[in-house]
Amino acid sequence: FCLALIQLRVSAVKLDNLQRACGLVKEAAEKGAKVVALPECFNSPYGTQYFKEYAEKIPGESTQKLSEVAKECSIYLIGGRSIPEEDGGKLYNTCTVFGPDGAMLAKHRKVHLFDINVPGKIQFKESETLSPGNSFSMFDMPYCKVGLGICYDMRFAEMAQIYSQKGCQLLIYPGAFNMTTGPAHWELLQRGRAVDNQLYVATVSPARDEKASYVAWGHSTVVNPWGEVIAKAGAEETVVYTDIDLKKLAEIRQQIPILSQKRCDLYGVEMKK
Fold first, then answer.
1. What percent of the chain has pLDDT over 90?
2. Which of 22, 73, 95, 151 is catalytic?
3. Which residues, 6+ apart, have CB-to-CB distance to 258 below 8 Å?
4. 45, 74, 91, 109: which has the fewest C-beta neighbours closer than 10 Å?
5. SS3 of 80, please?
6. Can you name the CATH fold of 2-256?
């Protein structure tokens, strides 16, 4: 099936972001994409100072638009970090997924919050405003089962291993790595998750805006189960298309059967809830 990643250039105007995102989703569907993904923080600038201002309930304005366009185009739509979600007085970094009938299939709250300090380069603390999610998020399509993470979640190999154990063949990470961590680890982490678990990994970033307070690396990417980069964007706004070949995935798992060769008598990773 054809997967499209929409690397959107995000502005400070929520309605404009929504309209342009939906327009690009429709364009991708017209070109044959069956699954379309939007980037982390596609409807608001990324930064702790913006989260409360742009926060919405789910369902709400942004998720209603995503539901409508998914139904109109008859596609599966991964809504990036569609919005900072407000629920019970707390804010979450949340990704929603909608099916071809417009129904919400999954809602992933970012499990691992981006709290880092690289002296002289970048300091960021999502936990100043956001609360962490406490669950894994998977959904089924006729094509395959998909596991969801958001940005920093990709650094935690155990999460991807759980998804693989549960039968996922594609992992999608809406993310916004920055100009320090992006060139160092963005592609490396994707290839690692893909090879370790013999599945496809797709990441979708906002386009780069050098004038933003947080400058995203861009380079939305798809990696196959052999660890090969099969599609990759630059820094600009664009839509990346690629075919997800599940026959190739099956062949790789048959040729190098690491998933059945794990020594579960010696070690293991388990999902606690």
1. 82
2. 151
3. 198
4. 74
5. coil
6. Nitrilase/N-carbamoyl-D-aminoacid amidohydrolase (3.60.110)
